[in-house]
Amino acid sequence: MAGHPISPGPDETGATTADKTTRVPGIPVLATPAAPRPNQHPPLPEAAQNFLREHGTDAPRPRMILALLSDGRWWSANDLVRASGVAYAVVSSLLKSLEEAGELVREPERDRCRLRRPAHYNGANAPILADPVAHLLSEHPRAAAELVRAVHEGPSSDLDLDHVSATAETALRRALFLATRFDLSQRTLLCVGDHDLTSLALALVQPGVRVSVVDLDERVLAHIDAVAERLGLPVRTYSADLRLGLPATLRESADLVFTDPPYTPDGVELFVRRGVEGLSDPKRGRVLVAYGASETTPKLAAATQARMVRSGLLMEAVWPDFNRYLGAESIGAASDLYVLRPLSRTLLFAGGDASRVYSQGSNAKEAKGGLTLERAAAVLERVSGLLKGESAEAVESTEDPANADGAEKDEKADQADTAAGAAAPALVGDWPREVTKDVRVRLSTWMDSPTAVGACSVVNLTGGWERLAPRVALAATTDETFVLVPSSSRWVRDEAGQREFRALVEPGSRVRFLRGLGAPDLTAIRLRRNPEPGGSTGRLLAHVQGRAHGTLTTTMRTGLVEVAAWRGRPINKRTARHAVASAPGWLSGHSLLDLPEHRFSELRVLASELVARVEELQQAKG
Length: 622
What we know:
With about 625 residues, this protein is an alpha/beta fold. The chain contains 19 helices and 16 strands. It has helices at about 45-55, 60-70, 75-85, 90-100, 140-155, 170-180, 200-205, 220-230, 265-280, 300-310, 375-385, 405-420, 445-450, 470-475, 495-505, 535-545, 550-565, 575-580, 600-620; strands spanning about 105, 115, 190, 210-215, 235-240, 255-260, 285-290, 315-325, 335-340, 395, 425-430, 440, 455-460, 480-485, 510-515, 520-530. Residues about 1-35 and about 415-420 have low confidence and may be disordered.
């Protein structure tokens, strides 16, 4: 992002362009080869000198802004931030001082300015520190071009996940740093979150590397998979909410970790800890972290660094302003690159399922959400009534008309099954302590392994967990499950979202959507095991869905054996294994719970193909 982001040449004032010295990505060109040595600058106007004097030994930071302005072009405050890595507060303060002194001209009706006498600021140019990978960039033009395309075509930022896109140059520079500083041939990098596409960048520049990506944003996973498949890159993606843990396959799987976490102390600590959990040998591995804070809020950075040290992490190196972003001007549109060395295999973590690690949205510390005692009691009272056979007519159902007849039949069956009464349901997730003393299960436990809790469960996903609704439903071991989400959730707010939800959990479960359960703004998704999932393909899918914690290669094999027996043409495990061996590479190493969402439709197609493959093998044997 170095240099001027918008002005390609002379502006309308006739000012000459800056020297065409090669620009280093991430660092602006502030000097010609003949730049003055430190303390030998020509004198600057008084307003600029006074501002620099107030910054003491850190004066080179605002001096970079003056150097950029000295080219005589029109600049916006945000452009100056992105080009320099200096925080917006410092940039705006400097511009205000210059304007008050009459040194600045504002462009009418536009948020841009320029110096009135740019030649008087030539003394602002000064030598700058060398970039550690600048000399390597020219060797990778193809990677640079592919990353520009990938960033341009990638998903927009999700502010609820604190996304701010890094530049394509930053992704490439990260990859070059990783490939140069570490031996990654035939080794594995784990990206803990990867909205910035660092995984693709490394795979483009480092032959023989393997890359795994874990992220909560399904759009990011789909985009990375699409680009990796188009370019033939060895990148594998996994879906997970890191607040609940790493997928089992990724634990102790990597040689090196990279993460650009949410920039809260809780967020940095959580993502770094997940990274350490992913290292096969923490004492030999490293966790690289992109983290930034405004130079005007040093206490925030100090608090985050203190947590790293207390966790048992050595800050082996820090490269200031290494990463540049298309936004985040409040922190200078830049962050530092930390190289952390774990001093032990495990790091204790005081967080938990309720950890709010993001700076904004439903998972920020300041966000309201979750269930009050009154609302929780109302929800459970309504669920109790439904379990005792009361009609669901009092609850507004948001069924797709195409499923209306089936839903009515399901309700009658539900009433018949539960009319005799039922035990109190198990409560999963965050519930008020006063609600009940019956069975409670942490959401992380529910997602980590099959949890036997009886015949019925109610899972609370309000308070920032609703993204997980389909996977939480698949993780259920109960015959009947109520998944509680806000009525604004993507999965329930309209027929399109409901169809998407059904596509992920059917045919293994029958689904109803009960709006207004316990409160007008709550919706319960009611799921019951489906004893008749359909033909061979439906039964295979239901078998896999009923064992969602297991690896897909295993559950597909056992499912094929079960389906063949149901059809009256039994097969042995070897035949099933042979059939599954023909599956695409993305299947292996996954459970249904960490399979990226865009693979679920492919899984349905694969199930049909595997059933047909078994039939072919049976016919071949005569």
